[in-house]
Amino acid sequence: MQMVQQLPVHLRAEAAECMSFEATSRIRDPIYGCAGIITQLQHQIIQAEREVAKIQAKITFYNAQVHVDPAWLTQSHYAQKQECTLQTSISNPSFGESRGGEFDDGPF
């Protein structure tokens, strides 16, 4: 009580409340008291921060997937395929004709 009386009046109630909390914590955990609670809460904060980071990474990945327009990919792929076929048929006029042998796909 003498320590509390040495404090400014506006801090005394908070100091008494802290001392009461520490005393109650010491009863529950005689070794660590409220320090054990603080450590436990710090571990929970670290775990929550890791979880938030994982979720943010998943959201970023998802957003990257959503922003890629599948129609654009399909059109782009089709245009590239058409361009490749056109270039091949220009450079090799017999392209596309059945030649038999190893390049013949057969009925499939």
Keywords:
108 residues, mainly alpha, 2 domains, 74% helix, elongated, LOB domain-containing protein, LOB, coiled coil
Entry summary:
Keywords: Coiled coil. The chain is mainly alpha-helical and 108 residues long.
Structural overview:
74% of the residues lie in helices and 0% in strands. The longest helix is centred in the middle third of the chain and has 33 residues, at 34-66. The protein has helices at residues 2-6, 9-28, 34-66, 70-91. It has two domains: 1-31; 36-90. The chain is an all-alpha fold. The relative contact order is 0.04. Residues 38-65 form a coiled coil. This is LOB domain-containing protein. Residues 1-59 form the LOB domain.
Write the layout of secondary structure elements.
Layout: H1 2-6, H2 9-28, H3 34-66, H4 70-91
- How many individual helices? 4
Beta strand %:
under 5%
Q: Rg, please?
A: 36 Å
- Summarize model confidence as the mean pLDDT: 78
Q: Secondary-structure element sequence?
A: HHHH
